[in-house]
Amino acid sequence: MEDDDARTVQDQWMNTQGLARYLHIHEKQVYALLKSGRLPGTKATGKWLFSKRLIDAWLEDRTRRNLADVRQRSRGSEGALLAAGSDDPLLTMLIAAAGRSIPGGAIFSAVTGSAEGLRTLGEGYTDVAWSHLLDAETGSYNTPAVIGRYLGDRETTTVHLFNREVGFVTAAGNPKGIAAFSDLVRPDVSFVNRQEGSGIHLLTEARLRAEGIDPGRIQGFERSVCTHVEVGLAVRAGRADAGVAVGAVARLLGLAFVPLTEESFDMILDRKTFFSRTVQSLLDILQGKAFQESVRGLGGYDFARTGRLLT
User: Fold this and answer.
1) How far is CA 42 from the centre of its chain?
2) Are the beta carbons of 245 and 90 closer than 8 angstroms?
3) What is the pTM (predicted TM-score) of this model?
4) What are the pLDDT digits (tens) for 37-50?
5) At what angle do helices 52-74 and 16-23 cross, to 10 degrees?
6) H-helix segments, 182-227
7) Is 104 left (phi over 0), alpha (psi -120 to 50) or beta?
8) What DSSP character marks residue 79?
9) How far is Cα 55 from Cα 14, in angstroms, rounded to an integer?
10) Which residues contact 206 (CB under 8 A, 6 or more apart)?
11) 10 Å Cβ neighbour count for 96?
12) CB contact set of 147 (below 8 Å; sequence gap of 6+)
């Protein structure tokens, strides 16, 4: 019985050598931690003793603090942000510029389409959504009525980034004379679409409904890609005769462009996130002359309202 009691005491308490083995560190590091006051221990008969229960609790506490530090560095007001939503060549350049200019303030962005980007923001998976959803009733973009369908009760702020030209991208010289949605139903015309839930896909469907055109009559309507550049590449490679994309893609790839509309491309985020260093620096870059001059060659972008709070 006495042997069992002795083993129980040994299991519950450790000396410096035993703690070093338990923590897989050198005994000198134990003394260093003791000197800095970071280890829970007690001195008895001139020797340090450590309760295994308190050491385990100390380890759990340190683990929780380390995880909190990692989350704070990777997300939140002073760290990197997670984003999802619409695609734009200028946005890609802006995110890259921000990553180079903001220490620890990178933005990790997924191209999911405007609707899915808003949904992931509403569900708390991301910090920012990129969107250009048209409100057919008002003719405005990203109105509270439209984005509220995806955000639920979450309170957010909408910040305008830029306006952009959107239209038909066709082969150089527009050899098939594509100028309107009615041209897409011709048997000699094939189309490449954007993915469902993207602002471009929803815009295309709205225009077809307004003109009474059945999407089923359009060759290739069910074929979709995720980015504007992919639309342009499909046209350039001859896999499609037309697609809807930003004018910048046509200019970059040497294709023809037929303007259809001008869109408002916006950023939706929580109010707290808006005041973060990363977001404020991003807006500073976008509003700066240096960045705007660097992308002027793309054409089709308007920065007159950049940074304006829409809601």
Assistant:
1) 50
2) no
3) 0.71
4) 778 888 877 889 98
5) 40
6) 199-210
7) left
8) S
9) 10
10) 134, 136
11) 12
12) 118, 131, 133, 156, 158, 268
CATH topology of domain 81-302: D-Maltodextrin-Binding Protein; domain 2 (3.40.190)
Could you tell me which CATH class the domain 2-68 is placed in? mainly alpha
Q: Letter for the amino acid at 210? A: A
**CA within 13 Å, CB half, 44:** 9
Residues 6 or more apart from 291 whose CB is under 8 A from it?
Answer: 94, 97, 285
**Greater confidence, 63 or 254?**
254
Structure tokens that stand for 180 in this block: 């309107």
Question: Rounded distance, CA 226 to CA 217, Å?
Answer: 22
Is 157 exposed, middle or buried (CB count within 10 Å of its CB: 0-12, 13-18, 19+)?
Answer: middle
pLDDT at 166 over 90: yes
Encoding tokens for residue 283? 């807006």
* Lookup result for tokens 């342009």: 232
How far apart CA 86 and CA 199 sit, in angstroms, is 7
Give me the residue spans of the domains in the chain.
2-68, 81-302
User: Who's near 296: CB < 8 A, 6+ residues apart?
Assistant: none
Characterize the bridge pairing of strands 224-225 and 191-194.
Answer: parallel
**What are the backbone angles phi and psi of residue 263, rounded to the nearest 5°?**
-110, 155
Question: Mean of the per-residue pLDDT values for the chain?
Answer: 87
Q: Are 170 and 125 in contact (CB under 8 A)?
A: no
